[in-house]
Amino acid sequence: MRKKSGAATGKPSRRGPFPIDAILLAGGKGERLRSLLGKHQKVAAPIGDKPFFLHILRHLADQGVRRVVVAAGFRSVEIRAALVSYPPPLPVIVVVEKKPLGTAGAVRKALTKTRSDPVLIVNGDTWAEIPLASFFDYHTGVNSELTIAVRWKKHTTRFGRVECDRSGRILRFEEKGAKKSGHINAGWYLANRRVLQALPKLAPLSLETDVFPRLIGRALHAWRGRFRFLDIGTPGSFSKAQAFLRSR
After folding, report:
1. For residue 50, is it within any domain?
2. Residue 27 is assigned to a structural domain of this protein
3. What's the distance, Cα to Cα, between the start and end of the chain in Å?
4. I need a surface site. Which of 73, 93, 161, 237 has the fewest CB within 10 A?
């Protein structure tokens, strides 16, 4: 019997080919990392033996993801160069925005290169060892339109909080800054195509501030899992990522 609690444990499962396409968000400038990266692209920053986003592509391939569309913007040339130097283990398409479109605008532009329903969306500056099969089963099992993977943290100050009921239905989002424990957005989303197709084309929009809040009260859910998670958004977390991914 399928569980609908949204909780999962253990290492990512390998299963595939998984009938899903992923959009990897890789257009940000990484302003908080200027002192470390200079003018370089954040997700292409070297972590261990290769650029950070290539570690994510390996994880997605291990999960059986069929194809990845990289939504690139700032210094997209570095994304393309990394893909040539380190050929990924699955098909990758790069879509470049000519002007900043925000996370939702970038997803809408990249959507035309995907075929699956739902579509997996992954933040390119976040490492989350999420078992895709469990995430997918929960999303389809509760008939969600959009599901956010969340993880419990003792201190959510830097991330903000996602509040949901016992079934996983999202009730509200709390902004960054509150010194509380709770669930944080881990940067992985499963979205049905009709939700993404309803977004305006070539309009700068944010998933986090323009799209998610509007879906509250509809089929917007949180999949609650226990998995290893880190981001490279600050100098401190960037250093932790270096040590963490070298040890894998």
Report:
1. yes
2. yes
3. 34
4. 93
Higher pLDDT, 48 or 167: 167
Q: Read off the amino acid at residue 121.
A: I
Closest by CA to 141, choosing from 172, 118, 116, 173, is 118
Question: Is the alpha carbon torsion for 77, 229, 206, 5 positive or negative?
Answer: positive
In a domain, 7, yes or no: no
CATH number at 43 reads: 3.90.550.10
Separation of alpha carbons 243 and 113, rounded Å: 34
State the angle between helix axes of 235-246 and 52-62 in degrees (0 to 180), rounded to the nearest 10. Answer: 50
What is the rounded CA–CA span in Å between residue 68 and residue 120?
9
Question: Domain for residue 194, yes or no?
Answer: yes
> Domain range holding 59?
18-246
Give the span between the Cα atoms of 217 and 213, in whole angstroms: 9
**Torsion 61-67-71-77 (CA) sign:** positive
| pLDDT tens per residue, range 77-134 | 999 999 999 999 999 999 999 999 999 999 999 999 999 999 999 999 889 999 999 9
Count how many domains the chain has: 1
